[in-house]
Specification:
Blueprint lengths: L1 E7 L6 H13 L2 E7 L1 H5 L7 H12 L7 H4 L9 E7 L1 H8 L6 H11 L4 E7 L7 H8 L4 E3 L2 E3 L9 E3 L4 H11 L9
Length: 188
């Protein structure tokens, strides 16, 4: 059984798909430790109420959500096989690319990279091909960082927007954990 940190950031429109991805990983025998950004842990949106989303994830994983810096700090010693950020917002991607560790998610990523272990990013960003393209490029060339394959989700309305294909998350995790390689194709 592969142990992963499952980091959830505030791409609120993808949270329903996030729960489906979580179900898929659990069905494939991943041992999931949930880690939430401050926004996911605390903000009610038109998509989910924070407490309802937290309860759904805790019920599925059987674990308490890590949602403070204090609780995230010991992740460095957890010997996780991988840390997955799904969904990863453009804001979180920029923080990871620039070494900013001011949320439970970015602290978990930093700890994992410090231990030379894989981090898998499932990006969901309206500016992945715009302002955040430089961060995608930087992290594409960073050791132990892997991307769940990306696609443009609405090229006519949002030409810079990209979303990971969450159905490829387990394949990407397995390639990263077992072979230390990027699952291909990177862009679908």
């Amino acid at each position: 059984m592969k142990k992963i940190g499952f980091c959830v950031c505030g791409s609120f429109c993808t949270l329903k798909a996030t729960l489906a991805a979580l179900d898929d990983l659990i069905s494939k025998d991943f041992d999931v430790t949930p880690i939430f950004s401050f926004n996911v842990a605390n903000l009610d949106t038109r998509f989910f109420k924070a407490e309802d989303f937290k309860k759904a994830v805790e019920d599925k994983t059987g674990k308490k959500i890590i949602c403070t810096l204090q609780d995230a700090e010991p992740i460095a010693k957890a010997n996780l096989d991988a840390v997955l950020v799904l969904p990863c917002t453009g804001n979180t991607l920029a923080k990871i690319a620039n070494g900013i560790t001011d949320t439970p998610v970015t602290l978990a990523v930093k700890a994992q990279l410090r231990n030379n272990r894989p981090v898998v990013v499932a990006l969901s960003s309206n500016d992945a091909l715009g302002a955040n393209a430089k961060n995608v490029g930087l992290l594409t060339n960073t050791k132990n960082v892997f991307f769940v394959p990306l696609r443009q989700d609405a090229p006519d309305e949002k030409p810079n927007s990209m979303v990971a294909d969450f159905s490829l998350t387990a394949n990407t995790l397995n390639a990263a954990i077992e072979e230390g390689r990027q699952y291909q194709p990177r862009y679908v």
